[in-house]
Amino acid sequence: MTRQLGIGVVVVLFVYSFATGQDTKRTMWDGVFTDAQAVRGQNAYKASCAPCHKADLLGDTGAPALAGPEFFSRWNGSSADDLVKTIRASMPQDAPDTLGTQTYVDLVSFLLKSNGASSGSAELPIDSAGLKLVMVSNPK
Amino acid sequence: MKLVSWIVVAMFAAGVSALVAQDNTGAPLVSEVPTLAPPKLPEVTAKDLLNGLNQPSRWLMYSGDYTGRRHSPLKQITPENVGRLAAQWTFQAEGMIIGRGFESTPLMLDGVLYITGNNNYGWAVDARSGRQIWRYRRVLPPALTYGGSNPSNRGFAASGDLVYMGTLDAHLIAFNRNTGDIAWDVVVDDYRQGHAILGAPLVVKDKVITGNSGGDLPTRGFIDAYDAKTGKRVWRFYTIPAKGEPGSETWSHEDVLPRGGGATWVTGTYDPELNLLYWGTGNPNPDYYGDERQGNNLYTASLVAIDADTGTLKWHYQFTPHDIHDWDSNHVPVLADLTIGGRARKVVMVANRNGFFYTLDRVTGERLVAKPFTGTQWAREVGPDGPIVLNDGIIPPGGSEATTPCVPDLRGATVFNPPSFDPALQTFFVMARETCAYYTPRRPEIVPGRPSTGGGMRKLPEPDFSALRAIDPKTGAIRWEYKFPTANLAGVMSTASGLVFTGDNEGNFNAFDARNGKRLWYYRTGSPIWGGTAMTYVLDGRQYVLIPSGNTLVAFGLPER
């Protein structure tokens, strides 16, 4: 019994170490970007996005809201990689895919922050494989 | 061994409960206690639909009737008394999009209004009190594609005791109109590829006709007909030919055909004598990048006339060959009988996104009139084989803004916001937009479910205004206009007493004298009126005019004596 318990503890610790590692799926609520990154994203937002999507991210007739229930109904269940790829494919409207990968990733970190996520100790990565592991999910 | 089995069991249980929580059959999650007992109402017959607005206590389809004129015979509200129009009740909706809200037209049948909202909400509302009878909320799947970026809906259709709605996950649903229970729910196409349904369906005889949305993603557009009782698909007309089919020779790269665009997202019209459906088609895909689709790209940016029984193409007219500006021709095609050049003609009239107004013979597709109705610099006249483009709107390699004029922005001269036609005054009314932009094409990556517009559009800050324009459809001449401060997407309705109703971006719901464009009345609704269009009916002897705006639907009437 004790030997089984010992093995069980080892299994649980093994699983736990994976859960906190960078190579497993996380959600936007797990501290997936840094404060500094979100500030870079905010600056990029002001320059390239705010004219249409507005300073409060609520958009208007010309551009959809990027924060609030509309963000979650659109993106719940999608990965940060989906977000980056979809945004850069058509935005900014006058010159899509011209901001550079790092900026698009920083913008996404700002969107996550604007939708209530807290920062963590590591940046949102710029590689697609890493971005695929970060999921947008509804707030609890 | 035992601990591992418990982990497996726990994981299995978690998986099952996750599945249950994500039930998305579309059934209402909440058992609604109706606020009023649902009445058992007479069924809508094919004859009723043909009769259209001749029964002015009803508004049976998106455009009011099969002609698309959105013109009511009601005369109780007149230019003389419209100044006394007052709000009678307001219905407030939930689940609406910030800043846009309602884009739909309610149906009116026997004292009950049937309304759709954003995110596939639907309601039956008592027209005497404005109170809800039943409500539908769809549990939509995550990771919607086009339907997620544009969660709108333009309205129900009705037949028998059913009302029909297309959904953001590309289903078609039939509801029992008395209870809101789902009668059937069928898959139209795969939303993960980019499909969605936003337009109101159209019932013709025993079939429900629907188009698709998603032409800014790599999809292939179509018009579908479903059995109105069972939901079984009867026919599909693809707007993009398959390899080897007629029209495929207008596409240089055959691998583009399965994803060539041509969506059909605005409700068409129908001529019961000719048994022809008239339906607009959207932009080719990629929207701005045309190098890998050289040629005219049939049947995009066109009007198609298709046999209502079989879905066979009878004729087409292409407004914008090889479109590179996202100028979908998704407009309500308006039917009328006019005498042009001394000859009586059955016509179809389209005010097009490309800035031109067209009158075509609706039997043959022959072009009778094609005149700009905006200040477009894209082209100033239409030659025998299509527009003569005076200046290419895309900055050519090595060219610059100094040498190339701007052309209308991607929304163009007018969009899905409906126009109206007064047959007594023989005048066509449309909300026109005046904008200017430059476009930069760029080869896109093609990924199913991801936008592939293929470039950028830079809209200049000016001009940016709208004008309600009254057009003589026999000549294309503009009789009068009324200007609005910003470019808007308001739809137009007219009545036989000589009134024209339309909204604006500033939130006003306005009434105009149809003869001269003088504004006679307005009401500040509090939200831009974006796609929402007025409808009207008589109930208990009083005429009401309704406008959806933002989160609200307001019913106006003359004060009771």
What is the strand and helix layout of this fold?
The complex is a heterodimer of chains A (140) and B (561).
Chain A: H1 2-19, E1 26-27, H2 35-48, H3 50-53, H4 69-75, H5 80-90, H6 101-114, H7 128-132, E2 134-135
Parallel strand pairs in A: 1-2
Helix pairs in contact in A: 2-6, 5-6
Chain B: H1 2-21, H2 46-51, E1 71-72, E2 86-92, E3 107-109, E4 112-116, E5 122-126, E6 132-136, H3 146-149, E7 157-159, E8 162-166, E9 171-176, E10 182-187, E11 202-204, E12 207-211, E13 222-227, E14 233-238, E15 269-271, E16 276-280, E17 302-307, E18 313-318, E19 334-340, E20 343-351, E21 356-361, E22 367-372, E23 379-383, E24 386-389, E25 420-422, E26 427-441, E27 455-471, E28 478-484, E29 492-495, E30 499-503, E31 508-513, E32 519-524, E33 535-539, E34 542-549, E35 552-557
Parallel strand pairs in B: 1-29
Antiparallel strand pairs in B: 2-35, 3-4, 4-5, 5-6, 7-8, 8-9, 9-10, 11-12, 12-13, 13-14, 15-16, 16-17, 17-18, 19-20, 20-21, 21-22, 23-24, 25-26, 26-27, 27-28, 29-30, 30-31, 31-32, 33-34, 34-35
Q: Would you write up a description of this structure?
A:
The complex is a heterodimer of chains A (140) and B (561). Chain A starts with a helix and ends in a 5-residue tail after the last strand. Chain A is elongated, with a radius of gyration of 18 Å. A two-stranded parallel sheet of chain A has the order 1-2. Chain A is mostly helical. Helix content of chain A is 52%, strand content 3%. In chain A, helix 2 crosses helix 6. Chain A has a single domain, classed as Cytochrome Bc1 Complex, Chain D, domain 2 (Orthogonal Bundle). Chain B is mainly beta and 561 residues long. Chain B has one domain: 8 Propeller (Methanol Dehydrogenase, Chain A), CATH 2.140.10. Chain B has 3 helices and 35 strands. The longest helix of chain B is centred in the N-terminal third of the chain and has 20 residues. Chain B starts with a helix and ends with a strand.
